[in-house]
Task: inverse folding
């Protein structure tokens, strides 16, 4: 069975996590060639979707039978996924090192190691791996999207667009590529252009919630609340009876977008009933409770998520946001300081720290932090305003 690790849903897991997802890290951890959509007839042009396994054509020409490379990928896949879920990115990198030693011409292993480096805040090493993946397989649309996502995170927006353009040229039926290009425009505060790209993604992939959630959020940032609600409603309609935790989390994200926090919380409660160990659902509930003003429950959720995954910076940012929102400024500042010490480019945390500093009277320091955040992600002030942070 091919494994497609797609960081799309839920679209928002709190400010920090949503920023991470907004650069649309559609990341292949292990991509085999057997099972699922990858077995479909090559004459059928499949959509490269945010909701389904990546089609074989998104990786250029691959053999129809299982190859030595696919067997190596399968062997390393389980351990790597376990390491990544535990935020043990250094261990994942070590596992990819060993796999690459056995199969040094496998572009997908380099791309996957690049994403592990990226998760470990080693952006230059990640870029080198993506460059190598593209050098080995210049026909792989998916590799160009990986590099574009990293370049978006690095605020190299022009070069990100170039990579996405190439990804679309290589695989035109590429809903994922239009989502990625829309995310670049959204990062740059070019909301009309973002909406156009998300609309194109929806045309190619009309039954995938990702495009509707993304377009709804772009419209929300632009101040078009009614249109945003219509998109969120459509995303919810596409999962009328969600049967797993991820589907409930998707729906909760759309309800939150409409400020329907009670409904969002009910969906998150259901997600956690299905998967009690789902730390992303705990973090989502922390954020939703924060927005609803239920700070005690919010901090309980954030603390439990962090107890299970203490190295997750997005979860730490959610706890900092909860403390900032409830006025516990010293606790928020301490958390933001710790996050920024690890990842100095985490714009959402820089912006949050700037607001906390201003509220404590350090206007100059606060302005410096918010300016640095805006330089990294120009849309960050609009985004944080939705969460009530101004």
Result:
């Amino acid at each position: 069975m091919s494994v497609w690790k797609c960081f799309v849903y839920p679209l928002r897991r709190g400010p920090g996590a949503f920023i991470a997802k907004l650069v649309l890290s559609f990341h292949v951890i292990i991509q085999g060639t057997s099972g699922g959509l990858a077995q479909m007839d090559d004459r059928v042009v499949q959509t490269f979707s945010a909701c389904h396994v990546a089609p074989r054509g998104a990786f250029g020409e691959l053999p129809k039978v299982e190859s030595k490379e696919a067997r190596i990928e399968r062997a390393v896949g389980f351990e790597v996924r376990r390491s990544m879920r535990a935020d043990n990115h250094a261990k994942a990198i070590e596992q990819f090192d060993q796999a690459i030693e056995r199969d040094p011409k496998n572009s997908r292993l380099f791309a996957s190691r690049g994403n592990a480096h990226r998760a470990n805040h080693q952006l230059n090493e990640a870029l080198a791996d993506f460059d190598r993946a593209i050098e080995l397989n210049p026909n792989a649309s998916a590799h160009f999207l990986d590099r574009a996502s990293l370049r978006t995170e690095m605020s190299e927006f022009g070069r990100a667009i170039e990579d996405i353009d190439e990804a679309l040229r290589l695989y035109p039926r590429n809903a994922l590529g239009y989502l990625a290009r829309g995310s670049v425009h959204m990062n740059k505060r070019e909301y009309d252009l973002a909406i156009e790209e998300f609309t194109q993604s929806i045309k190619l992939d009309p039954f995938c919630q990702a495009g509707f959630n993304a377009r709804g959020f772009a419209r929300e940032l632009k101040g078009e609340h009614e249109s945003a609600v219509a998109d969120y409603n459509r995303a919810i309609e596409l999962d009328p009876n969600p049967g797993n935790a991820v589907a409930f989390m998707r729906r909760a994200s759309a309800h939150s977008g409409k400020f329907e926090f009670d409904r969002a919380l009910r969906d998150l409660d259901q997600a956690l009933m299905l998967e009690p160990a789902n730390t992303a659902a705990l973090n989502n509930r922390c954020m939703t409770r924060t927005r609803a003003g239920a700070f005690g429950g919010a901090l309980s959720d954030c603390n439990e998520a962090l107890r299970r995954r203490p190295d997750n910076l997005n979860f730490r940012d959610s706890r900092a946001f909860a403390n900032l929102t409830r006025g516990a400024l010293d606790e928020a500042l301490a958390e933001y300081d710790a996050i920024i010490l690890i990842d100095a480019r985490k714009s959402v945390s820089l912006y949050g720290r700037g607001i906390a500093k201003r509220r404590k009277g350090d206007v100059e320091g606060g302005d410096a932090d918010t300016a640095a955040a805006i330089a990294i992600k120009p849309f960050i002030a609009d985004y944080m305003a939705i969460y009530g942070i101004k």
